[in-house]
């Protein structure tokens, strides 16, 4: 077995890697799976063309026109979009046992549970993550009791540095960062101190902090000042108070400076208070595109506003982002946010064979923001088929 570092070095010469003598001698077929005739969109390789994708041993072997060789399984992707498996860096899939399987059918082959649990209940989300078919990790909520209706850290004692550190120490391999939910109804006037403590915990393990922005008591620039490169701001289209734009629709200079320092900005669709069309429009109009798209998925969100990751991506198409930009945000950009996804988010030869086959339909589709505003788009992405580690998985019907 190669470790990951060795693999990355070797993957640059993927052709050599796959010519290991006798590697496939036992099998009569050259490929385990071919995804045939789809429009392959792989932003990491600037590829947008009709191609076949040949897969063997859980890895992408080749992407080219008309693969002639035999395969054990074939997916007919003609008329469909073939993208790298979707990576959702803000979901709550680990809140329920069947969350991972439901997301997988939507094309999500990698995910991060963004703080469903704190130190006290982190074992529950970790258990779901460990039994999930996909690559996944969890963020620990700095509020030790996790998500609370009365506010995770309204009682500042719950932002317990010692408890969070101990929980990470026990689960270092599954905890990928620290989540700090900072809006008024979650942290109240404690927001800054909660973030300071989250950073104290995260920094000691060299992990990122992910902040839930919008409707905070503290001004956003004061919060951004505590962030380090690699940290993530989610709910970037949240309306005032304390959104990323000022009253005249200009991006705050501190926000631009934060991006320059290597802080990422994420959608975090969700259902309450995070996404308002007019704010999203102004932010995009100012040229400040998201680094990543994410669903903030919950079981309830499947029937309300969020629906599935391809639906969330479609909202950004409606708002004017290009298809390749939207796919990049949901794949390669997301893969760069967490080391666990390092050989994912692309269809290049040698990468893990995680593939989302999507159906880009033209028509009239209604989308909703978090404030009951409806808008109509002309395109909607639907999940069609998912390939995980080289194998076709059940699709949502
Ligand atoms: Zn969330």
Describe the structure in your own words.
The protein has helices at 4-11, 14-17, 99-105, 122-131, 161-170, 184-187, 191-204, 220-224, 253-260, 277-285, 309-318, 323-330, 332-337, and strands at residues 31-42, 47-56, 59-64, 71-76, 81-84, 86-91, 108-118, 135-141, 175-181, 209-212, 232-234, 264-266, 355-368, 374-388, 391-393. The strands form 2 sheets. Strands 1, 2, 3, 4, 5, 13, 14 and 15 form an 8-stranded mixed β-sheet that branches. It has a 7-stranded parallel β-sheet with strand order 6-7-8-9-10-11-12. The two termini are 37 Å apart. A hairpin with a 2-residue loop joins strand 2 (47-56) and strand 3. Helix 11 packs antiparallel against helix 12. The protein is of the alpha/beta class. Zinc ion (ZN) binds at residues 90, 92, 114, 270, 296.
Bound molecule kinds, no repeats: zinc ion
Helical residues, percent: 25-40%
Number of helical runs? 13
How many E-type strands?
A: 15
Biggest β-sheet description: 8 strands, mixed
What structural class results from the helix and strand content? alpha/beta
Give me the Rg, rounded.
21 Å
Cα shape = globular
The rounded distance between the terminal residues' Cα atoms is: 37 Å
Order of helices and strands: HHEEEEEEHEHEHEHHEHEHEHHHHEEE
In percent terms, what proportion of residues is strand?
25-35%
Low-confidence stretches: 1-22
Q: What do the pLDDT scores average to?
A: 93
């Amino acid at each position: 077995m190669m470790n990951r570092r060795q693999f990355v070095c070797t993957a640059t010469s993927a052709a050599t890697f796959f010519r290991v003598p006798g590697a496939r001698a036992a099998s009569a077929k050259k490929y385990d799976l071919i995804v045939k005739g789809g429009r392959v969109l792989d932003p990491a390789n600037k590829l947008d063309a009709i191609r076949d994708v040949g897969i063997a041993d859980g890895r992408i072997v080749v992407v080219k026109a008309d693969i002639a060789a035999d395969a054990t399984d074939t997916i007919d992707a003609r008329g469909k979009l073939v993208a790298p498996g979707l990576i959702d860096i803000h979901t709550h899939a680990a809140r329920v046992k069947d969350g991972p399987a439901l997301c997988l059918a939507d094309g999500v082959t990698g995910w991060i549970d963004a703080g469903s649990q704190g130190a006290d209940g982190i074992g529950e989300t970790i258990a779901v993550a460990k039994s999930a078919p996909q690559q996944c990790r969890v963020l620990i909520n700095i509020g030790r009791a996790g998500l609370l209706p009365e506010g995770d850290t309204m009682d500042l004692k719950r932002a317990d540095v010692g408890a969070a550190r101990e929980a990470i120490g026990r689960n270092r391999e599954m905890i990928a960062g620290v989540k700090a939910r900072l809006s008024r109804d979650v942290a109240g006037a404690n927001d800054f101190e909660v973030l300071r403590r989250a950073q104290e915990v995260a920094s000691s393990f060299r992990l990122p902090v992910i902040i839930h922005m919008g409707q905070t008591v503290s001004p956003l620039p004061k919060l951004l000042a505590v962030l380090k490169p690699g940290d993530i701001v989610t709910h970037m289209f949240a309306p005032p108070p304390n959104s990323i734009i000022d009253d005249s629709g200009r991006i705050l200079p501190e926000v631009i400076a934060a991006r320059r320092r290597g802080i990422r900005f994420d959608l975090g669709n969700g259902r309450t208070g995070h996404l308002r069309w007019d704010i999203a429009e102004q932010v995009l109009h100012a040229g400040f595109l998201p680094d990543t798209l994410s669903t903030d998925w919950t079981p309830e969100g499947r029937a309300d506003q969020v629906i599935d990751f391809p639906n969330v991506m479609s909202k950004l198409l409606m708002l004017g982002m290009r298809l390749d930009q939207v796919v990049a945000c949901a794949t390669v950009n997301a893969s760069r946010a967490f080391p666990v996804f390092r050989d994912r988010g692309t269809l290049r030869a040698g990468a893990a064979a995680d593939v989302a086959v999507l159906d880009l339909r033209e028509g009239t589709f209604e989308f909703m923001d978090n404030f009951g505003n409806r808008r109509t788009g002309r395109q909607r992405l639907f999940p069609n088929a998912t390939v995980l580690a080289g194998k076709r998985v059940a699709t949502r019907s």
